Amino acid sequence: MDDHCDRLPALLVSYRRYLDQPNTAEFIAEVTRRYTSGTLQRLVRHPDREVRRAAALALGYVGQYDANHALGCALLDDDRTVRTMAQNGIREIWTRAGNESERLELNVIVRLNAAQLHKEAIARATRLIDRAPWFAEAWYQRAVAQTALGRLVEAIRDCHQTLEINPYHFVAATSMGQAYLQLQNTISALECFRRALRLNPDLEGVRVQVARLARMVEDNRG
């Protein structure tokens, strides 16, 4: 693959074609033929916003977990479209850590949570964590199941571990804040929500929560 800047127009051509007539398979094929993940990670910081949009979209489709930092930074981009694509893309790459067997097991756990089979999800997530303790999304999916079963302290612990491994996991920060809210710990909930906003300022629901909780804390102090 050629990583030279003379390939830059090709990315824009592919991106514009995709926007005009979305063909995901064709876009992915063109990107992977011409660009490495490392090149796309550099392009997501390009001065031209359309280039950044194209690179963020491409990373969401083809990037591996090593693109986490690049997309995490793109969540703070000046351009809203870049931020939106980064938000969608980064959640995809969170599931791409580990080997094929570990990723398949994570998919099973996600489906178990979706089917509300939370005890089985916890059991399988725990086994996956034992095999791959660095797999942040395994910790987060266990937190999802813990929350559903009302095990809020355990869920907070798993969300905290998720963020220790993956400091860009704004979803875990938000979930931790919600768990603290259920425990009526306003101060800790506010801290978690603020952390989520620092990672992803486009979380409008979280912004509303921050404003509400900040007023509550101020009123209590008064």
- The total tally of domains equals 3
Give me the CATH superfamily of the largest domain: Leucine-rich Repeat Variant
Q: What is the rounded Rg?
A: 19 Å
Mean pLDDT: 94
In the CATH classification, which architecture of the largest domain applies?
Answer: Alpha Horseshoe
CATH class of the largest domain: Mainly Alpha
User: What does the main sheet amount to?
Assistant: none
Please name the CATH topology of the largest domain: Leucine-rich Repeat Variant
% residues in beta strands: under 5%
- Following the backbone from N to C, one meets helices and strands in this order, namely HHHHHHHHHHHHH
Regions with little confidence, pLDDT below 50 for 5+ residues: 1-6
Task: Estimate the helix proportion, in percent.
Answer: over 70%
Shape: globular
Terminal CA distance reads 63 Å
Structural class category: mainly alpha
Structure notes:
This protein is mainly alpha-helical and 222 residues long. Helix 1 packs antiparallel against helix 2 and helix 12 runs antiparallel to helix 13. The longest helix is centred in the C-terminal third of the chain and has 18 residues. The chain has three domains: 91 residues, Leucine-rich Repeat Variant; 52 residues; 55 residues, no CATH class.
